[in-house]
Structures are given as structure tokens and as C-alpha cells.
Amino acid sequence: GQAASVLIITRDTTIQKQVEIRSQARLEFLQRLRQAKDVDECLSIGCRAIYKAQLFKRAVLTLHNENRAIINLGQVGLEEEVLTKARKGSAPDLGLAKKITQDQFRIGRSYFIPAESGIMTKSIERYVPQTESLAPGPGKWQFGDELFVPIVSNDNSYEGWLSVDTPIDGMRPTADIVSFLEEVVDITSKQVHELQSIGRLRMESKALEDTNVALREVLRHIDEDKMEIRQKIGNNVSQILIPAFLKLIRKDGTLNTTYYNILKDGLPELVTASGAAVLMYSKLSPREREICNMIKSGSTSKEIADTLNISPATVQKHRELIRRKLGIVNKGINLSIHLKGL
Predict the structure, then answer these.
(1) How far apart are CA 298 and CA 304, in angstroms?
(2) What is the band of 6 on the pLDDT scale with cuts at 50, 70, 90?
């Protein structure tokens, strides 16, 4: 009786010690997880919590994309060479995945695949063989045993897995151990999703900021274009409209039809005049600009001479100077057509 009592007390003490260790590991896990800066760090903290709880010496938490390629990984107890090989390895085919997730292997929502099932083999590229020797016996963890806990996304699909091996007590998992693992996975998953949401918000904020910068740049160019248009209109008004308007009425009070035609035909062009036209007018003297406007309105050299009270020879001389300044000397280009095309 005393021996049985001692065994019970020892067992109770052991259980109490396990509870304390797991509680402390859980507390440290929660504290560290809140400080995690990225997804991989979250996954590694989850794995370390499992080790700190004295459950398994090795643990790997992975997240996968839609092609089941590993995109994030955290671990404890594995060498870098082994991790690199696992990262590069192809995902198990869907047939194998279906075998692994059979109901006969389910514990809670996790899956324990015993070695005797023959499902997990070294031919699987992501297979990580155990390195420590294990004592044989009933309920003992065997080489080839695998325990998987799925990470479930918001749409109830599998987005990753926790894989553990080499139990510290050397035993196959019990329901309470699996429950602890699932709790670690759930808490880690929530923190991961929160970090991912923050990351998406930051990306969206950056995209919005970039859009605002681009919009401000567009608005700046629009303002510059408006200023350029105002300058063009101002130049055209000062160089074409005002000189023609001042000479619209002759001294005897009659209408000067030449300048009337300049205003009538040229006024619509003032607003839409191209930069080339503004540049062209800037090269010419006031008299040459005046003659250009008359030529554009269809006036002949004689009409221009009569209007300006100069000789036809002087008009011809101005025509030659205009051609030279516009770069169309001896090119067989009609001056009137060239001016209208600017």
C-alpha cells in the first residue's frame, strides 16, 4: 500500500511539474510573440515554446502559398543544412497528403502518422529524418513517426503545418500534448494573420502615398502647362492682337480691312497657337510680325505695301528676312503656307 501511495504521489508530483513547466512556457511564448517583428519570427517563437514546454526537441512551423511552396518557416532543433534541403524540396503530392489526413490518424484536428503505416518515407523531398536513437517499448515514439498540426486559414483551408519529432519523454503523443500543440499553433496563427494584415495595410498606405505623389506631380505639370498657355496667349495678344487692333481704324475714321482680316482670321488662332508659333514670333521684329500676320490673312505684297505706306521692294526685303529667320531660304517653301502651318 505504501509503495502504491508513493507511486501515486510521485506521479502527481510529475504531472504538477509538467503543468508548471507548460504554463511557464506558455507565458513566455505569449510575451515574446507580442514583440515579434515578422512572420518567420512568430513561427520560430511558437516552435521554441514547444521545446520550452519539454515536449519535443525538434519542431518546424511552415506557411505555404497556393502552390504549396514554403514561404515562411520557423524552427527549433534543426541544422541549417537540413532546413535548406527541406525548403528546396517539392511538396508531397496530393495523394500522399490525402493519406496523411485520413481520419484513422486524427487526434483532435491533428494527425499522428505511426511508422508502421509505411506512409512517410525518405523518398519525400521534405522528409527530415530523426537523428537520435529511441528506446523501444509499448507506446514509445518510433523512427518514422510523424505528428502534424495544420495551420488553418480564415477560409478553413490549410495554409501551413507544424511538424514535431523526438519527444523529450520518448513517448507517442497523448491528447493533452496534442491539445497544447494546437493551442500554440492557433495563437501563433492569429499573430501571423495580424502581422500580415499590418503588412498589407502598410503596402496599401505606401501605394496610396505613391499615388498622391504622382497626382501632385501631375497637378504641378498641369499648373506649369496653364502658366505656359497663359504666357503663349499673352505673347500672342501683345505681338499680334494689340498691334492689329491699334491700326484697325484709319485716321480718317474708316475701317482698315487688312487689319480687320488679320483680327478676324487670326483671333481664333491666338488661343491655340503652338509653341513653334510663339518661338517663331520671338525671332521677328515688330514690323516683320506685322507683315507675317498680313501674309497669313491673304494680303498681297502690294496690299501690304499700301497698308504700311512702304514700297513693294521693302515688303520683298522683309519677306526675305522673314524666310532667313525661319530657316526656309531657297527651300521652295511657300511662305504663306508655312506661316499658316505653325
Answers:
(1) 10
(2) very low
Can you give the pLDDT at residue 179? 96
- Whole-model pTM: value is 0.59
Q: What's the whole-number average pLDDT of the chain?
A: 83
C-alpha span between 112 and 104 (Å, rounded): 9
pLDDT score at 243 = 74
CA angle 223-224-227, nearest 5°?
A: 90
Domains of the chain: 2-204 (3.30.450.40), 247-341 (1.10.10.10)
Distance separating alpha carbons of residues 299 and 259, to the nearest angstrom: 10
Burial per residue of 131-150, b for 16 or more beta-carbon CB atoms within 10 angstroms, e otherwise: eeebeeeeeebeebbbbbbb
The predicted-structure confidence for 52-87, as pLDDT tens digits, reads as follows 999 999 999 999 888 888 899 999 998 888 777 777
Question: What are 196's three cell numbers?
Answer: 500580415
Residue 333, φ and ψ in degrees, nearest 5: -100, 130
Distance of CA 216 to the CA centre of its chain: 20
| Torsion-angle region of 169 (φ positive above 0: left; ψ -120 to 50: alpha; else: beta) | alpha
